[in-house]
């Protein structure tokens, strides 16, 4: 389940030009709309007070920002996959499970920290390229694992990876710039999600598990910047 790799931005731009990529196209845009939701009709009715009108503007801005973020994730995923929108849509038409997973992935992205957007783009690219149910189920596992994570969780994973997969608690603290005692809930969540393990040493050391390694790889593939 490997997406085509682009070596530089010029290649990505060429792919975008050649395939006519646009996250706002009617069909992809409709799927994005399902993931983002919309402004409640009761708030944007034709007869509203000035206060409600101002509230509607704020809420619309919120949904517009979500929509733009999801469009960016989808656009990047399409570039990483190296597929035209027509090819993606054709595949989605015959695979309802992929549609369900795409909507779930994008909804989860909007409920997660923006620092994870690169990972979601890489996962979505793999979903577009996936050929069987096992690959799609694997992506679903990643999406569930990412729910609730923030930039600090990714920072911890990346600093352990940089240390060849094993790093002491004090070194993690020094690397991310947060006191060790304040990192306890962070590393415990990563442990509960099966991304790192306690090496059962004194002083404490943490090592990456397979899921954690995979998240790091998706982060690098998606160009996450932490």
**Strand content bin:** under 5%
Q: Compute the average pLDDT.
A: 82
Could you estimate the helical fraction of the residues in percent? 55-70%
Structural class call reads mainly alpha
For the largest beta-sheet, the strand count, sense and barrel status come to: 3 strands, antiparallel
Q: Regions with pLDDT < 50 over 5+ consecutive residues?
A: 1-6, 12-24, 41-47
Supply Rg: 20 Å
Termini, distance in Å? 26 Å
Question: How many strand segments?
Answer: 3
Succession of helices and strands: HHHHHHHHEHHEEH
Distinct helical segment count = 11
Strand order of the largest sheet: 1-3-2
Task: Indicate the overall shape.
Answer: globular
What is the element layout, followed by pairings?
Blueprint: H1 9-19, H2 26-36, H3 50-81, H4 85-93, H5 96-110, H6 117-129, H7 133-146, H8 151-162, E1 166-168, H9 169-176, H10 184-192, E2 196-198, E3 205-208, H11 210-222
Antiparallel strand pairs: 1-3, 2-3
Task: Summarize it.
65% of the residues lie in helices and 4% in strands. By secondary structure, the chain is mainly α. The chain has a three-stranded antiparallel sheet with strand order 1-3-2.
Characteristic key phrases:
mainly alpha; 3 strands; disordered N terminus; 226 residues
What this model shows, in words?
By secondary structure, the protein is mainly alpha-helical. Helices cover 65% and strands 4% of the residues. A three-stranded antiparallel beta sheet has the order 1-3-2. Strand 2 and strand 3 form a beta hairpin. The N terminus is likely disordered.
